[in-house]
Design a protein that fits this description.
The structure holds two protein chains of two kinds. By secondary structure, chain A is of the alpha/beta class. Chain A folds into two domains: about 80 residues, GMP Synthetase, Chain A, domain 3; about 70 residues, no CATH class. In chain A, about 20% of the residues lie in helices and about 20% in strands. Chain A starts with a helix and ends with a strand. Chain B has one domain: Ferritin, core subunit, four-helix bundle (Ferritin), CATH 1.20.1260.10. Chain B is about 60% helix and about 0% strand. Classes of the chains: A alpha/beta, B mainly alpha. Chains A and B meet through loops of A and helix 2 and helix 6 of B.
């Protein structure tokens, strides 16, 4: 069997983020390249510097490929260019919303970090209202902030634009 | 363990790693003790970013040490098996926690410095340093925003929050001079960062109706490995497991 890049990418589509299991690592945009060398090199990048899921993801990639008979693999990490939510697939954003996490809105380059300014019009994943407000810029994982819906009163996670 | 002597730049990479790690270790003391749940989560998220940045710098330092000195260092040996005099972190990072005002003022002073530093290091000729700076600055921007908002909230808040913020500034300001003192091993002239840093601090302090201290004595020594008595206590706690059970792994 000749191993193609497409074949490997199809297998990587089945490797999910351990913290957000509805998203594949391709949806998340953390797979930067696949190099058909010997061993086959999978190049990934962390979402945040301290992301504790990276080691688990690296193991999951090796396991999934090994199950498919591709055993000679190596995982390498790159930091530059830095990961951004702009790399998240549209399908990934839809899956996030269906899972109950409001997906990132707009381009990361428009995040201005002005004091006391918060991103508005984040849609509540439960009742779809956009009458929502920020509770905290930091949530249950590095990549999320915490919002609440003023209509259905439920708190929810927002995958922040980064 | 004998004291390590490394060539140019390796000490600077270790200094960057050590500052991030030691402040992370201090901040982690807030875990489950934050004033409210959301802010407990915020400070520990910031701490996690700092640990990530420290890991990236340690991994790079280890690769530099191993390629020039034929050693077998890892991020773990550098964090867990060096002694006080070998740690090169800024002194401000090791000072004990006092209260929430002290924590947010320290984070604001330190993160604003990191922001200027990473901005400059994004242009560094060393690809690895450039990559770590490019990655880190996006996180640091959040830390600056969060801590600046808290400085304003407390400085311009109640009588008590203002009093505590003033005490924190008085206690911490003498440790900010060290940000801008150069060591021969530094990969850039850090004194160049002072103006932009001071402008940022001044603007936020103004908004918080606080004033910037002037002409006061500044401590230094951290970048040379000369520390306050507090670092030893941090290391004894942080390194306990590796000292007690050498080579222990998860």
């Amino acid at each position: 069997m000749t191993i193609t890049k497409e074949h490997i990418l199809r297998l990587l589509e089945e490797v999910c983020d351990p913290e957000i299991p509805v998203l594949s690592i391709l949806d998340l945009g953390i797979v930067r390249d696949v190099v058909l060398s010997n061993p086959i090199e999978i190049i990934i990048t962390p979402t945040y510097s301290g992301c504790p899921a990276m080691d688990a993801i690296a193991i999951d990639i090796k396991l999934r490929l090994a199950e498919a008979g591709i055993k000679n693999t190596t995982i390498s990490y790159v930091l530059n260019p830095a990961w951004t939510t702009d790399w998240m697939s549209e399908r990934g954003k839809e899956k996030l919303l269906a899972y109950g996490i409001a997906p990132p809105v707009g381009l990361a380059s428009r995040v201005n970090n002005l004091l006391f300014e918060e991103q508005t019009h984040i849609v509540c994943p439960l009742c779809k209202s956009n009458n929502t407000e920020l509770i905290s810029e930091f949530g249950s994982t590095s990549c999320k902030s915490l919002y609440k819906c003023n209509d259905c009163k439920e708190p929810f996670d927002h995958f922040k634009c980064h | 363990m004998s004291t390590m002597h490394f060539s140019k730049n390796i000490n600077n990479v270790l200094h960057l790693a050590d500052s991030a790690l030691i402040l992370a270790q201090r901040n982690s003391e807030w875990c489950a003790h934050g004033p409210i749940l959301e802010q407990d989560i915020a400070i520990t998220n910031i701490t996690l970013d700092l640990i990530g940045q420290a890991r990236n710098f340690y991994q790079y330092a280890a690769s530099l040490i191993n390629s020039t000195n034929q050693k077998n260092e890892t991020e773990d040996t550098l964090a867990y098996l060096r002694t006080e005099r070998e740690f090169l972190n800024l002194l401000i990072c090791e000072l004990p926690n006092v209260d929430w005002a002290h924590t947010v003022v320290r984070q604001f002073l330190f993160s604003s410095f990191q922001q200027q530093l990473f901005l400059a290091l994004q242009e560094n000729t060393d690809d690895a340093i450039q990559a770590i700076a490019t990655k880190s600055i996006k996180e640091t921007n959040y830390h600056v925003k969060w801590s600046a908002e808290w400085v304003i909230r407390l400085g311009d808040g109640t009588l008590e929050s203002r009093e505590r913020t003033l005490n924190a500034i008085e206690a911490l300001w003498p440790y900010t001079g060290e940000f801008f003192t150069n060591e021969p091993t530094d990969m850039m002239d850090v004194s160049l960062l002072k103006k932009a840093w001071l402008d940022k601090i001044t603007n936020v302090f103004l908004e918080a109706s606080l004033s910037v201290p002037e002409n006061i004595f500044m401590h230094s020594g951290g970048k040379k490995g000369v520390h306050t008595e507090h670092l030893g206590f941090i290391l004894s706690e942080m390194q306990y497991l590796q000292r007690m059970y050498p080579g222990a792994q998860w």
